[in-house]
Write a structure and sequence with these properties.
With 517 residues, the chain is α/β, with parallel strands linked by helices. It is 25% helix and 17% strand. The protein has three domains: 348 residues, Glycosidases (TIM Barrel, Alpha-Beta Barrel), CATH 3.20.20.80; 53 residues, Alpha-Beta Complex (Oligo-1,6-glucosidase, domain 2); 79 residues, Immunoglobulin-like, CATH 2.60.40.1180. It contains 16 helices and 21 strands. A hairpin with a 7-residue loop joins strand 15 and strand 16. It binds alpha-D-glucopyranose.
């Protein structure tokens, strides 16, 4: 088999607070994840990405790190993490951690030192500015969590810069000492056996010349074309390449043309800049989906490996965005496109966004006036008991989900979302055409799209994928109608294996994977 593991494989994101709680405090932990590895192995994923488990005051639930090289007691110990890595490796799976390089917690010893005086050793590890000429913040830059990106520090008489909460001061990546310390963090984890990182808001590391004055309503969109970013990406990549088989996945919210520059001209930057093209769609329709796929495939430089995402801890749940019937079609799309898919925990059982009353919101983004992200972070449901097999205590967020939304119930039901995910994952693993093969667009007709996946191996197989992205019947793209083969997976549970010949249309919400003759 050729290709790197992260090209053939599938990534599964775990939000550690919400996967399994082993000690009854209502918050998930590392032991709780270890207890659920059977599920991940059974489901047939390749790598587990953990949202941050480092020491943190949890102002942004771990995305405010107070020690990059230790585990927060809420989640367990460094030993627990070592054991989790060993367990995963024994089962043939990998572990990815979440590297948060743009900012630390204001409780990080570096920042505590930095704000102690203007001459402190770590002062210029962060970004400090004098007030504007007439007083007030140095410029109009806004934080992603609303309000000014500048916080006044009375003791030293300057403002510091924060792209997110004031409890998350931005590091100054133009400082070589910062870069050296941060790349050593990567080495620390690579030596412990971590297989790679998802890198948080990585395009924000370069701020542009002198933090030029402008109003930037959404920091995720800033600095897209900032050339200073690319040398930083190469520095991270050099470190990953000091070790075997490691992967760097970057969180970057930019349109395809800018996103793909993060592979690097010589493919010497990030292995996989996250592609949120499908996650960001406002309308889930054949036309928008097809355009997003084509635009991304077209923008990809030769040899750059694609990837796809349909859910994460920052966006509303897939089943809520597109509805249950279309969530099945979306799963088939995600797992048959060319490129590494990342699954979000709970999407495989069709978990929905939980609409929470304000009193129980925990997410600082929501509490500060933005959209709350709590509804997509609620605990995984393992069974249909009152506490869902998640905890023996009081869950940190409610467990509410429609009846039957749990692993135990869905596992034995061949018609369930979970069974569909597993069938697709197993097929994808077994068939080189589906994991490493080429992608060949067959276009769109009505609300349906079709494409082929073709193995490059001699005598390799070809698959046809036909997806109806709406709840009414649709004609098939003309190019698909003359193809013949056997239907191996269908989104419509009642359909058994059948021949695909002479079909000219798809039923509502029908998706088919067909092994061509
Ligand atoms: C990323 C994370 C998000 C976090 C933010 C600040 O966007 O995905 O959850 O709040 O960075 O670290």
């Amino acid at each position: 088999m050729s290709g790197q593991w992260w090209q053939r494989g599938v990534v599964y994101q775990v939000y550690p607070r919400s996967f399994g709680d082993s000690n009854g405090d209502g918050v998930g932990d590392l032991q709780g994840i270890r207890q659920r590895l059977d599920h991940l192995e059974w489901l047939d994923v390749d790598a587990v990405w953990l949202s941050p488990v480092f020491r943190s005051p949890m102002a942004d639930f771990g995305y405010d790190v107070a020690d990059y090289c230790d585990v927060d007691p809420l989640f367990g110990t460094l030993d627990d993490l070592d054991t989790l890595i060993a367990d995963l490796h024994r089962r043939g799976m990998r572990l990815l951690l979440d590297f948060v390089p743009n900012h630390t917690s204001d409780q990080y010893p570096w920042f505590i030192d930095a704000r102690s005086s203007r001459t402190a050793e770590h002062r210029d590890w962060y970004i400090w500015r004098d007030p504007a000429a007439g007083g007030g913040p140095p410029n109009a830059w806004q934080s992603a969590f609303l309000g000014s990106a500048w916080e006044w520090d009375g003791q030293t008489g300057q403002y510091y810069f924060h792209s997110f909460l004031k409890e998350q001061p931005d590091l100054d990546w133009t400082n070589p000492e910062v870069r050296a310390a941060m790349t050593d963090v990567l080495r620390f984890w690579f030596r412990r056996g971590v297989d790679g990182f998802r890198v948080d808001v990585v395009n924000l590391l370069a701020k542009g010349p002198e933090l030029a004055d402008a109003t930037h309503p959404d920091p995720h969109d800033r600095w897209g074309d900032e050339p200073a970013i690319h040398p930083l990406m190469r520095e991270l990549r050099v470190v990953a390449d000091e070790f075997d088989d490691r992967v760097l996945i970057g969180e970057i919210w930019l349109p395809p043309a800018e996103l793909v520059t993060f592979y690097g001209k010589e493919l010497d930057e990030l292995h996989l800049p996250f592609n949120f093209g499908l996650l960001e769609l406002e309308q889930w329709q054949a036309q928008t989906v097809h355009e997003a796929i084509v635009a991304y495939e077209k923008a990809l430089p030769p040899k750059a490996w694609p990837n796809w995402v349909l859910g994460n801890h920052d966006r509303r749940r897939l089943a809520t965005r597109v509805g249950h019937a279309q969530a099945r079609v979306a799963a088939m799309l995600l797992l048959t496109l060319r490129g590494t898919p990342t699954l979000y925990y709970g999407d495989e059982i069709g978990m929905v966004e939980v609409e929470l009353p304000r009193e129980v919101w925990r997410d600082p983004q929501g509490l500060r006036g933005g959209q709350t992200r709590d509804g997509c972070r609620t605990p995984m449901r393992w069974d249909d008991s009152a506490l869902a097999g998640f905890t023996t205590g009081t869950p940190w967020l409610p467990l509410d989900q429609p009846a039957g939304t749990d692993v135990a119930t869905r596992r034995d039901d061949p018609a369930s979302m979970l069974s569909l995910y597993r069938a697709l994952l197993r097929l994808r693993r077994a068939e080189p055409a589906l994991n490493l093969g080429d992608w060949h667009d067959l276009g769109r007709a009505g609300s349906a799209i079709a494409y082929m996946r073709i193995s490059g191996e001699p005598g390799g197989r070809r698959f046809l994928v036909c997806l109806n992205l709406a709840g009414e019947p649709s004609p098939l793209p003309e190019a698909a109608t003359s193809l013949r083969g056997e239907i191996v997976v269908s989104t419509l549970p009642t359909q058994g294996r059948a021949r695909f010949e002479g079909r000219r249309d798809l039923a509502a919400d029908e998706g088919l994977v067909i092994r061509l003759d």
